[in-house]
Design brief:
Largest sheet: 6 strands, mixed
Radius of gyration: 28 Å
Shape: globular
Strand order of the largest sheet: 43-42-2-46-45-44
Helix content: under 10%
Distance between the termini: 14 Å
Length: 725
């Protein structure tokens, strides 16, 4: 038999993964914010909430989908109080987008997930059997029988939030949504007949039974037509043949006035209020809506955002009655801005109505400055520890977008940080009229003092400014504007010595995902930037990695600067040894205490990553500024070790192998050997790092059966049979 005499690893544009391991850390104190239960949860913007038993203890916990960041945030119900539990987030389906609804569709007592798919509504069954959530995709899309008898996909608009619930009280889930296409903006009723047809609740027997449910039509913000009226008669003008009041709409249906029938609440993505319709009929299948009010849920405190409020119904106060949580159903501030620092309004059910008890539900327990938190660290008070600065964007009293900088003094020490808010508007920068601001401290003129770099929109431009430090003082009126570099809307900047001449160069992350390098060819306080690379480190435009943000820091204590990237994918990548790197990268891994292991996770979209040695000078901590206005902290595993008690994992694929490359999957460092069945060694003691993506070239192996062995550090040996056809 001809055997393989030489085998090598095949490397791609990535290196050994899990080299960069970080641990979520919640215990950095805020000395004057003792009331905050989980300050480092990352903030909240427009959230879609649902109840679910996460830890299988018989009590419903809370999960929310933040549309801005794309994150699922989890909170355990502990003795009636909510406790932030990020360890459960990774177990939810990764494809959640646009809307997130938790409902039990098959009557097994476990909440299932409904979300938007490319072809309609996607459903995931909750198949959890123990303490960890587990899901199985039930349907890529839901189908229904149309009024004409055709089998059709049930489609929803991009920004729709449909109602999914048991409307006819027969035990299976029905669906209400505004029509996907057509001129009239009416509600369609999709009746689920699975109980009647199959005797069990499922999602395989929907029928469109009413394309004018409630005989109400949405004409415009605050304008509706009832019982056959035409929108153009109500509006007093002739309308064209385009869809009327097109755009995303939300539907919530529940028994508001406790009369035994369901009322309707709707909203529209272009409107700033909710619309409540009382049902004067005795039926949910044929309701009668003859009028509406926008003074809802409370006439004293109606829910009014500048943009698209969405109503969700659930018990959030632990009194067994259903409360209302209302949050904007949007991804970010466009058009009329929303106050994202107070964007989750809780109305408690008080028996005869609803009372507003908080505009910052759960936000009041975390750092949340509104949107686009951009952290930066500097020893501002010169006491040898790093103080925290957070640039943020929110709306001012005139309801105009405004950016400012919050300054937190580190009142701890170099290894035990503790932050205390000193100023919510450092340098009074809010007076400059900036928005969408990001900051960095960097010694631009190489005089030993850190200067303040500001990137922000001003008027119709995205500007880069430098405030040079003069003996711990800054003059905003003397800032230098860098105007010879194009910085488009949605771009990001970072200054670092990339070339290696001790002068900070400019990295520009494009909204489309590419990275541009500009060399600093100026001197001192006259920086001048010249483009060196349009796709630095081979980071080019990529839709799935758009909204690129970068940071440069030696994060592994090898005396080499590393480039860290965050983007729309939600992953964080590390390009080590920046000045000698040609495009190779690792993925940053996060520890999960439930599985006692490190894994690649979804950190969220549009993060601003910063590394700072707030615990240890050699191994910096990752601080993520989130698009939702908060911060998250991840300690470096090199200085903050955790026990890893996972089972040993060793897999080979593809198997049988016909493509000449054999991939290995292992959760610990291993030594690999390959032998024939008669014991002849083909390969021995090839070192492989945990979570790596190297491939072994097996193209010279003849057809037959081989034994692939993995030797773990604890001495345990695991073997797998490899088939070469």
């Amino acid at each position: 038999m001809r055997v393989l005499l030489f085998i090598t690893f095949i490397f791609y544009s990535f290196l050994t993964e899990a080299q960069y391991r970080f641990i979520p850390y919640q215990d950095v104190p805020l000395s004057n914010s003792s009331e905050m239960e989980f300050p480092w949860a990352g903030g909240l913007n427009g959230v879609q909430w649902g109840k679910i038993d996460l830890n299988n203890d018989g009590f419903l916990d809370l999960a929310g989908f933040d549309r801005s960041s794309g994150r699922i945030l989890c909170f355990l119900n502990i003795d009636g109080e909510y406790e932030y539990a990020p360890e459960y987030e990774m177990f939810f389906p990764s494809e959640i987008q646009n809307f997130f609804i938790l409902k039990d569709y098959n009557q097994d007592g476990k909440m299932d997930v409904f979300t938007a798919g490319n072809l309609g509504i996607t459903a995931y069954e909750n198949i959890s059997t123990g303490g960890l959530p587990q899901w199985s995709k039930t349907l890529d899309f839901i189908r229904y029988t149309s009024l004409s008898g055709n089998d059709v996909n049930l489609q929803v608009n991009f920004n729709d939030y449909p109602f999914i619930g048991d409307l006819d009280d027969d035990g299976d889930l029905d669906i209400l949504n505004f029509n996907f296409s057509g001129i009239e903006s009416r509600i369609l009723f999709y009746q689920n007949n699975s109980i009647e047809t199959n005797g069990t609740a499922s999602l395989n027997s929907f029928e469109l039974v009413d394309n004018y449910w409630g005989t109400v039509e949405d004409c415009d913000c605050g304008v509706f037509a009832f019982n056959g009226q035409d929108c153009q008669d109500i509006l007093g003008r002739v309308l064209n043949n385009k869809a009327r009041h097109a755009g995303g709409k939300s539907i919530s249906v529940f028994d508001f006035d406790k009369d035994g029938v369901l009322e309707l609440v709707t909203s529209h993505e272009e409107c700033n209020e909710l619309y409540y319709f009382n049902n004067s009929a005795l039926s949910n299948l044929d309701p009668n809506f003859e009028g509406f009010t926008s003074s809802y849920p409370s006439s004293n405190n109606p829910a009014q955002f500048n943009f698209y409020p969405n109503t969700m119904v659930m018990d959030l106060t632990g009194d067994a009655s259903e409360d209302l949580i209302i949050s904007p159903n949007i991804e970010g501030n466009i058009g009329s801005p929303v106050n994202f620092s107070s964007s989750n309004w809780l109305y408690q059910n008080v028996g005869n109505g609803y009372e507003l008890v908080s505009k910052k539900f759960l936000q009041e327990d975390m750092i949340d400055w509104g949107a686009q938190a951009s952290p930066a660290f500097l020893d501002y008070d010169e006491d040898r520890d790093l103080d925290l600065f957070i640039a943020y964007t929110d709306i001012n009293s005139n309801e105009v977008l405004e950016s400012a900088i919050a300054f937190y003094e580190n009142v701890g020490d170099t290894q035990n940080p503790s932050f205390e808010l000193q100023d919510s508007d450092f340098l009074n920068i809010s007076q400059e009229g900036f928005a969408n601001m990001f900051i960095q401290w960097q010694d631009v003129d190489v005089d030993g003092q850190k200067d303040l770099i500001i990137q922000a929109t001003s008027g119709n431009s995205n500007q880069l400014r430098i405030l040079f430090q003069e003996n711990n003082e800054f003059d905003i009126n003397s800032s230098v504007i860098i105007d010879n570099v194009f910085i488009g809307f949605g771009y990001s900047i970072h200054l670092a010595d990339v070339i290696g001449d001790s002068h900070p160069d400019l990295l520009v992350g494009k909204s489309s995902g590419g990275l541009i390098l500009y060399e600093n060819i100026g001197q001192g306080r006259n920086p001048s930037f010249q483009q060196r690379s349009q796709n630095y480190l081979n980071i080019g435009d990529d839709f799935f990695r758009s909204s690129l943000r970068v940071n440069v820091m030696d994060i592994d204590n090898d005396n080499q600067q590393d480039l860290i990237t965050s983007d729309f994918s939600g992953n964080i990548r590390v390009f080590p040894n920046l000045q000698n790197n040609t495009g190779q990268f690792d993925t940053l891994y996060s520890y999960n205490e439930l599985i006692q292991n490190f894994d690649q996770i979804f950190f969220g979209k549009r993060n601003n990553p910063v590394f700072a040695p707030i615990f240890n000078d050699d191994y910096p901590t990752l601080i993520l500024g989130t698009v939702s206005g908060g911060l998250r902290v991840f300690r470096n595993n090199a200085e903050y070790e955790v026990e890893s008690g996972e089972e040993l994992v060793f897999q080979i694929y593809p198997n049988p192998n016909e493509n000449n490359l054999l991939f290995i999957k292992a959760n610990q460092d291993i030594s690999i050997s390959i032998a024939t069945l008669n014991g002849q060694t083909i390969l021995s003691n090839l070192e492989y790092s945990a979570f790596g993506r190297e491939a072994i070239d097996v193209s010279q192996l003849q057809s037959g059966l081989y034994i692939v062995s993995a030797l773990f550090a604890n001495g345990k040996n695991i073997t797998r049979k490899l088939v070469i056809p």
